[in-house]
Structure formats: C-alpha cells, structure tokens
Amino acid sequence: DFDVLAREIEVLKPIVRDDIFTLSSYAIKKKILSIHLLISLGLSYHFQNEIEETLKHAFERIDELVTDETDLYTISIMFRVLRTYGHNMLSDVFSRFKENNGKFKECLIKDVKGMLSFYEAVHFGTTNDHILDEASSFTLEHLEPLAMCQRAIPPNMLKLIQKALHIPQHRNSQALVAREYISFYENEEDRDETLLKLAKLNFKFFQLHYFQELKLITMWWRELSITLNLPRNIKERTVESWFAALVINFEPQFSLGRIMSAKLYLLITFLDDACDIHGSIPEVASLVNCIERWEPDYMENLQGHMKSSFQFVMYVFKEYEEILRSQERSFMLDKMIEEVVIYTNPNDS
C-alpha cells in the first residue's frame, strides 16, 4: 500500500539524515562515503539538498581532504561521488597509487573493494583523463580473474564484481543498481540496519509505482490496438519501452514522465515495424509526408496500415497535448513534434 510505505519511509528519513549529515565538518570524507551508499541504494533523491550542500563544501576543501589520503577505496569513492554531482575532481589524484616507474602499485591488487571502486571510477573519465585509461587496463587485468573465481573472495563481493564488469554501476539503470546493491549491503558486516530498512522500504515503493505504470501502459496499448485496428502481427513492446524510460529516470516522482516516454518509444518502434512489414516504399513515403505536414485532414491520402499508423501518431500527441496543457507546459509540445518529424524523415536521419 502506497500510503503505509510512504509513512514508514518518512519516519526513517530523519533518522538517516541525522546519522549522515549532522556529522562534524571534520568528517566530510565519511559523509561522502555515506552519500555513495545513498546513491547505490537508490535513496539519494530523498536527500538532494543535503548532498549538494555537503559536496559543495567538500569540493571547496578538496586539496586538504585528499592530501594525506592513501586509501584507494576512499579516493575512488570521492572521485565518483563528486563527479556524479558535477564537481570536476582531478584524476591526477590517482597518481599517488603509482610506483616511480609509472606503473600502478602491485600492493593494490590485494584491496579487492578498492580495485572494484577504482574500476567504477574509470567510467567517470573524460578524454583528458589519461591516467584513467591506464587504470582501466590495470583494474580489468586483475578483476576479470576474480570474476572467474580464480581467487577466493566473499560471494557477495564476487557477485558485485561480476555485475560491474558486465555493466558498470554508472551506466546501469539506477533501479537495478539499487536492487543489486541492497542484496550486497545486506551481507556487509558494518551495515547500518536503519539505512538498510529504509532502502528496502524505498525499493518496495519503487515496485508499486513500477507495477502500476506497466499495468497502465499495457492496458493502454492493448485497448488502443483494438480501437485503431493496428496490425496484429506487430510485437507488443510495452515492457521494453517502459524499461527504456526507467533507465532515464527511476524515481517515483517521474512516474508520469516514464509513462509518456514509454508511449513515445512504443510509437517509434511501432512505426518502424509497420513501415518495414506492411508498407511499400511509396506508402511509407506518403506516411512520412503526412507526418511532416502534421495535418490530420491529409490522412485521407493514406491507406490501410499507413493510415492507422498516422492515427496512432495523432492519438499519442493528442494525449500529450492534454497532459502538457494541464501542467502549463504546452511549449514543450512543438519540440516533441519536431523530434518525431526529424526521426521519420530519412533525409534527417
């Protein structure tokens, strides 16, 4: 139940906030490590103001904070978290982990947690962060054997490494990251039980939203297929389209945005399939011309599935128009139409 979960979450949030953000200014590094936990557990959106304020102060003192820090895990987490929030912590900070010969220290290999976090940090690099290119080769060389069980490590750490090598956390869906990291964190000896409980409740809250969204989109698609007499052999891609939207924004407050995005992805994949399977070149050209004109009356020039395809386009954007008007965001509609016109025009692709 949404209300019950929401109330339980609201009870725990102040406790977690006090535990993390009321630490003294001398404990900034500890706060940053905790912010990493909030991000990984899918909780950071609850504490955005506190996180941004903490990281702003941390970045102002970055030289002081890292001067004597020799722990690979701590430096890597700081680098990841600060860059996540737009603070350009310099990658030269990793130079301290090199020998005089320019190679990374062999002793780092024993620090599995640090190596994994170093590997994850690599994916925040830019074209100018040459040291991170070296770090990518170094970490992969030693993490890949671990992922293949060539050395004994705790099962939960093994699973985390395998998942990171498959898709780094930074490039994965944050909802999936949260689900996987909750399982990992649950097995950590130094876990915070209150934080873990909040993460689990929060993820259940996610799931309720997600189930409702999928149900709504699936019912919408199936009813629409019958109403508009869409081709029956077109694959139903409601889950794929919704998941593509989830990758962009996973938080509950973006539920409407996910639904709108999923419908747009459904529309685009439908147009691809309809044109590939059911349209001749002249028929597809007529459909593209019709979309460019964006005039419902011009639809009389279309036949069969090309006509129902254009009806589908008009139906979706009629919905968008009503939603955006209700939110006083009608100005966005023209840009959305422009993007669809560009997408369907082969000369602009």
Automatic annotation (TrEMBL):
PANTHER family the record matches: OS04G0344100 PROTEIN-RELATED, TERPENOID SYNTHASE 9
Which molecular function GO terms apply here? Answer: magnesium ion binding; terpene synthase activity
Q: What is this protein called?
A: Terpene synthase N-terminal domain-containing protein
Keywords of the record, alphabetical order, are: Lyase, Magnesium, Manganese, Metal-binding
Q: Name one GO biological process term.
A: terpenoid biosynthetic process
Q: Which Pfam families match?
A: Terpene_synth, Terpene_synth_C
Which intervals hold domain Terpene synthase N-terminal? 4-165
Q: Where is the Terpene synthase metal-binding domain?
A: 223-339
Q: Is Protease one of the keywords?
A: no
Q: Name the source's superkingdom.
A: Eukaryota
**Family matches, as Gene3D superfamilies:** Farnesyl Diphosphate Synthase, Terpene synthase, N-terminal domain
Matching InterPro entries, A to Z?
A: Isoprenoid_synthase_dom_sf, Terpene_synth_N, Terpene_synth_N_sf, Terpene_synthase-like, Terpene_synthase_metal-bd, Terpenoid_cyclase/PrenylTrfase
Similarity comment text for this entry: Belongs to the terpene synthase family. Tpsa subfamily.
